Structures are given as structure tokens and as C-alpha cells.
Amino acid sequence: MFSAFEKDSNKKINNINSNAFRGKTIICIGANAGIGLAMCDHVAQSGVKRLVMGCRSMDKGEAARSEIKERCPDLVVDLWQIDLSSLNSVRSFGQRWTEQAEDARTIDTLFLNAGLISPNTASSSSADGLEMTYACNVIGHLALISHLLPCLNSTDSRIIFTGSGAYMFTSLPSRPPPNKRTPLRDSWNVYGYVINAFAIYADSKLLLNVVVKELQQRLADKHIWVGVYHPGAVNTTITDKAHYGVSWLITYPFTYIMSYFGRTPAEGAAPGLHLASEPKENLPGGAYWNEYAQIELVKQAEDAELRKRYFDRCVEDARVDPAVFVA
């Protein structure tokens, strides 16, 4: 019904309205590589007024920023540090943004692209004591939105999450369990490795769909559009775990296959760029969109009671004032 693209042999999406980015201020979190860098590259060449690249690693971020500046030397491209696994880092980013001059605060599009799979026990907990995948893929993003919400006040403000079709491999309990680390399944640690890392990742992406649907309900009166999309099977660095030791033996086959058969980051970014550029009246808010920008029904995201339970738990774990998200 809401199909925007047709599947073709080249797996390409060609109807992005690049002119829609002209003169806008865009933040992209997770911008130093892969899909995030591809998004930044596209909007930079589309006449944006200002591009802010949010990255955890400043070294990698600066290398990515230099790439953009080389192609677009006259564009204002800022690099800001943010670590979604640390609520203090997220808060610092938000405070820095809101302390700018009034005419620099307005955000037109917020791309929330950062995400991870954490197969190593030593990195399975965030700085705030949360399970790392849950913290980075859901909580850090929600906390950031709470800090930036007053600045998402343009006539066309949008929040666009990078999701994953991995959500289809899991389901959520009807109520969040009492585990303080996560309302999702917790890590199973064997000899220093998280053997259910992919299952936790899938859980986080299903929860993201639930959160997006509820977030749209609560932000509707602010005229902010919210959506989440699946980029497809993309050849990125998310499965490159050589620095995690034995985990490399598990992820290498997938990484190798993706290097030959996966989508390019630019192809993976395309549905997100479409959602950022298509007129909002053509895009039902709060929906999950597949890699061809077709809406897919996420059954648990349609359960209003389940949505509220999990959203409230996420707000609690993000340590933000619940009143921020009261419709």
C-alpha cells in the first residue's frame, strides 16, 4: 500500500529528493563509517546548511569528516564526540547543543544510526551498568532525543532510526522482566565471550520498533515525524570483530559473504534518505520500513499496553524526566 520502491536486480533506490536537504541542519549519530558516513556524504552534496557528525572515536570521526570536507570544502561540517553507552556523554552532547546561539539550535533531521553487537564479556556492560547492546541501540538514542527535543522545532523535524530486519527472529515478553541491566535477554558468558550476542541484538531491534511507534504517539502534537528503517544486509564494519579474539571465527564468514553479496553502505542508507526527504504527508509516522521503503507490520509494536510498559522502562533506564515524553 505504501510501497515507494520496486525491487530490482541492482538493489538501488533512485527516488531520493536530494533538494529537500537544501538549507537544513542535520545531525547524524554514528557517522564515521558505513551507513552513517554514506548518509553524511549524500546530504553534504545536497546543499545542507550544516552537518554535525556524532562519533564515539574522534580519530575515526575526523578521518570521515575530512573525506566530506574534501568533496564539499565550503560546507560547515562539525565533528562532535558522543558515546551512546554513556549517559553522561549523551547529556554532554545535548547540553552543548542547547547552549549554542538560538539561531544555531534548530534541528531539521536527526539520523540515529549508531548501533552494535557486543560479543565480548569485558564490554557487555555500559558505563551506567546496563547491558551494552540495549544501552547503545536503544537507551542512548532515547536519552539523546530527550535532550534535543526542544530543538526539533523546525517546520519539518524528523527523527530517523536505523533498524534491522533481525527483529523478526525474536519476541518480547508481555512485560519487561525485573532485571536491572536490561528488559531484554541478558548475556550468556562463556570463557569471556557472549554466546547469544546476535539474539540480544535482535531483541534490541524489536524493542526499537516498539519504542519508535510509542515515541511517535507521544510526539505527534509536536509535529515531529519519527520512523525506523531496515537498510538490508549491508557490508559494514558491525561484524568486524577481529579485535575481539575468538569472536572473529564466528563473524568472519558473515563478513566475508557480505563483502561479496551485501549492499553497499550507500544502498543501505538510501531508504533512510528517502524517509528524510519525502513529504511527511506521504509517510505514516511511527512505522517500520524495509530496505525498499515498504511498510511492514511489526505485531508487538501494535500492542499499546506492551508499548507503554517497555517505553516507560526505557525512559526510566535513560534517566530522563518522564514528563518530557507525555503526549
Summarize the SSE layout with pairings.
Blueprint: E1 25-29, H1 34-44, E2 50-55, H2 58-71, E3 76-81, H3 87-98, E4 109-112, H4 132-148, E5 158-162, E6 189-190, E7 193-194, H5 197-219, E8 225-229, H6 247-261, H7 265-277, E9 288-289, E10 295-296, H8 304-317
Parallel strand pairs: 1-2, 1-4, 2-3, 4-5, 5-8, 8-9
Antiparallel strand pairs: 6-7, 9-10
Helix pairs in contact: 1-7, 3-4, 4-5, 5-8
GO molecular function, one term: oxidoreductase activity
Pfam family, one: adh_short
Organism: Wallemia ichthyophaga (strain EXF-994 / CBS 113033)
Description:
The protein is of the alpha/beta class. It has one domain: Rossmann fold (3-Layer(aba) Sandwich). Helix content is 36%, strand content 12%. It has an eight-stranded mixed beta sheet with strand order 3-2-1-4-5-8-9-10, sandwiched between helices. A two-stranded antiparallel ribbon has the order 6-7. Helix 1 crosses helix 7 (265-277), helix 3 packs parallel to helix 4 (132-148) and helix 4 (132-148) packs parallel to helix 5. The longest helix is centred in the middle third of the chain and has 23 residues, at 197-219. The model is unreliable at 1-11 (pLDDT under 50).
In short:
The protein has 327 residues and is of the alpha/beta class.
What are the defining features of this structure?
globular; 8-stranded mixed sheet; two-stranded antiparallel ribbon; 36% helix; NAD(P)-bd_dom_sf; oxidoreductase activity; Rossmann fold; oxidoreductase; alpha/beta; 10 strands; disordered N terminus; 8 helices; 327 residues
